Amino acid sequence: MKQISLFLLLIFLYSCKSDTRNSNAVESLKKEFTEMEKQREKLEEKLKHDDSLLSEIQILIEKNKFVPDVTIINEKYSLNPFELQKPILKNLLESQYSSVDTTLFNNRHVDNQIDTVFTFNYGSSFIEIYKNSSEEFIKNGFSNSDTLNLNHGLRYGMSKTDFLKLLSNIDSVSNSHNNFRIQNSEIVQNVDFKFVNDKLVYIHFEGYSD
Length: 210
Hints:
By secondary structure, the protein is α+β, with helices and mostly antiparallel strands. It has 4 helices and 8 strands. The protein has an 8-stranded mixed β-sheet with strand order 1-6-7-8-5-4-3-2. Mean pLDDT is 80; it is low at 2-10.
């Protein structure tokens, strides 16, 4: 509306000038405002599209966010669910990963000591290894395929019934749940398991590092 009002005002001012005004300038002004209006409409359409895309992304994130139906305390299965042979880093470097990233950190307890996190990607699955001057251990891991081998009798695609049989407190866990979080008693690390159509399709390990 502001642009239209401004346009009318300019036309009025031009009409008040002498008859010697340049009519070509008026036509040029009309074209300029027409072009500005087209650009404004394009911008509005782009903003609508961007808002729509953002909403779709937010919905997708919320849809895939893991929310446990039940949390189980179990010392054995709250540990690393991935089968990693020692020395871990050496063996992973010799594995068939698709890419590897490294991130450096200052050690929180030792001055001038640099620690490293290695992220090995296997398609959509990954393993993160934390390495300092004296040890290396799994920090994080995720799998939604059978690419990564698992520990303790776990198998990608296993049935929920077989999964529950692995737990010592099976009688206290309902078979109606689909999202399981297993923690240790100190709650410093956990493993999430998601079942779809009675099949294990998602495993996420979140370890602890200080």
